[in-house]
Q: What sequence folds into this?
């Protein structure tokens, strides 16, 4: 057994409690890691604060070069990183490699665009402030705490880590207790690629108690990715100290398919969106609303494609085991509940659940109030329901308490964009699924139970900054309103001028 305790994690006393990670496919133990508590986190925070001062003082071009070196080192080590992700999550190596590739794209974008997005900008002045030069600048927050999930253990937290570092912050990262090895490796590669900034990025390991301690540690913002239930708990802790909080939570993404859509392309995308990574994707496809004319044909195509997939271990499997054993029961409850409420199981059904694997399940005519339609399933299950028209599809898609991603398949891009504009989702792909997640310039995030705030893109950089507004007085104004020396008559004249001005439209 390998000890996961590395010089990149916080120093932990030898007698400190530890936990172990296991292969989701075989149950075999992978490694042991310390359970970091408040003291270890305080040490990590102190180091990060020390390192962040120098990091923030660097010219932006130097920070960019450091981050691009880290990106190159991750690309050089792609096989090792992907191997660790595959080992910890059980996902096929090809999927793990794709996760690293997407992460590299985002890191490159954040590194190359931070200076442009965050540089000082002029602001217009007004009638009584013409004597001022006004500007605003985005300053780093300090040290950001990041709490991550296990389903995309690199790509997802790096949406916060990479952007926070690019914006000049330090980071203390608590990965999921199922995937600490990926985080430790990420930090180790950072330290090797970015010498002279030790402690700027630190991984702390552990489960809920470690995350709770990080939320209480005094970080300058906490970026959380995980389930809405946990988000509520962490946000309540952050509220005690008014620590700013960003929540990237679950989804129940809908796909709308219109009568003139390319059904072959739609079926292909729906199957991938619903089943890749065993359905354990926050913005994965869980609900499909197809107009009645094409519903039967779409179902046929989805079933044919999904039925041809191989589930299991190894590189030729379409997807692997459920990463978190506890999620299997949720999937089973949703499938059983849907079928007993009258849904048709077109492929699979309750017998598809064979832990740690779940074979593809395609359901139709699922009652809208069944848990399979209202709760996040987070498994390889898709419900394909018929609707009378696009209006009904939009209404049903928007009826969820989640609002993360969505997709529209229809004959034309412009018509698709018009439907997208009616959806409450934070991101919509037209004629593809999850297209938005691969475009680093596009912000990502949802609302309601899907959380709030945005990662990625310009908003994702600004999310880890505080705006500072600055005025520089260029000359003494004829009417200095911020002085006790102003004669009453001058003040009254100013009010008359303003009133005359603002009475016009
Ligand atoms: P989870 O909520 O169980 O755990 C998330 C993280 O919170 C883990 O690191 C966990 O250790 C930590 N944690 C648990 N209890 C805590 C507490 N009381 N205080 C502080 N930290 C605590 O979620 P998960 O099972 O790891 O991830 C799956 C969920 O994440 C799904 O709902 C999925 O949709 C969501 N997700 C969202 C996005 C997104 O960007 N919107 C991306 C990936 C996953």
A:
């Amino acid at each position: 057994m390998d000890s996961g305790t590395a010089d990149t994690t916080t120093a932990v006393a030898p007698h400190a409690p530890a936990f172990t990670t296991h292969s989701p496919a075989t149950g075999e133990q992978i490694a042991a890691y310390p359970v970091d508590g408040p003291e270890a986190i305080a040490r990590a925070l102190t180091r990060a604060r020390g390192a962040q001062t120098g990091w923030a003082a660097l010219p932006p071009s130097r920070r960019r070069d450091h981050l691009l070196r880290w990106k190159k080192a991750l690309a050089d080590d792609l096989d090792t990183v992907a191997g660790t992700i595959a080992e910890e999550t059980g996902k096929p190596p090809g999927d793990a490699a794709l996760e690293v590739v997407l992460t590299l794209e985002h890191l490159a974008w954040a590194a190359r665009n931070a200076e442009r997005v965050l540089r000082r900008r002029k602001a217009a002045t007004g009638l009584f402030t013409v004597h001022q030069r006004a500007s605003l600048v985005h300053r780093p927050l300090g040290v950001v705490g990041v709490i991550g999930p296990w389903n995309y253990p690199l790509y997802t937290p790096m949406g916060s880590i990479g952007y926070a570092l690019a914006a000049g912050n330090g980071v203390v990262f608590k990965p999921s207790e199922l995937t600490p090895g990926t985080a430790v490796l990420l930090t180790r590669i950072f330290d090797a690629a970015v010498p002279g900034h030790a402690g700027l990025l630190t991984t702390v390991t552990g489960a809920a108690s470690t995350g709770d301690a990080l939320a209480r540690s005094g970080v300058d913002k906490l970026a959380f990715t995980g389930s809405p239930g946990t988000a509520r708990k962490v946000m309540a802790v952050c509220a005690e100290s008014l620590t700013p909080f960003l929540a990237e939570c679950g989804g129940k993404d809908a796909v709308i398919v219109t009568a003139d859509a390319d059904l072959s392309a739609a079926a292909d995308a729906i199957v991938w969106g619903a089943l890749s990574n065993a359905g354990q994707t926050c913005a994965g496809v869980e609900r499909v609303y197809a107009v009645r004319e094409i519903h039967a044909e779409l179902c046929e195509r989805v079933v044919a494609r999904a039925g041809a997939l191989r589930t299991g271990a190894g590189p030729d499997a379409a997807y692997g085991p459920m990463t978190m054993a506890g999620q299997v029961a949720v999937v089973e409850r949703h499938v059983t509940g849907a079928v007993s409420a009258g849904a048709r199981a077109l492929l699979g059904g309750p017998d598809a659940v064979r832990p740690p694997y779940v074979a593809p399940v395609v359901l139709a005519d699922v009652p809208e109030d069944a848990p399979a339609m209202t709760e996040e399933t987070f498994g390889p299950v898709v419900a394909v329901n018929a609707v009378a028209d696009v209006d009904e599809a939009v209404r049903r898609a928007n009826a969820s308490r989640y609002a993360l991603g969505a997709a529209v398949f229809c004959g034309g891009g412009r018509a698709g964009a018009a439907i997208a504009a009616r959806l409450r989702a934070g991101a919509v792909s037209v004629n593809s699924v999850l297209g938005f997640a691969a475009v680093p310039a596009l912000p990502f995030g949802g609302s309601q139970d899907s959380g709030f705030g945005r990662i990625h893109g310009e908003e994702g950089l600004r999310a880890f900054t505080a705006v500072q507004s600055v005025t520089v007085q260029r000359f003494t104004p004829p009417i200095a309103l911020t002085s006790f020396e102003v004669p009453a008559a001058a003040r009254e004249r100013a009010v008359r001028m303003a009133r005359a001005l603002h009475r016009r439209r």
Q: What stands out?
A: The domain at 18-249+457-465 is CATH 3.40.605.10 (Aldehyde Dehydrogenase; Chain A, domain 1).
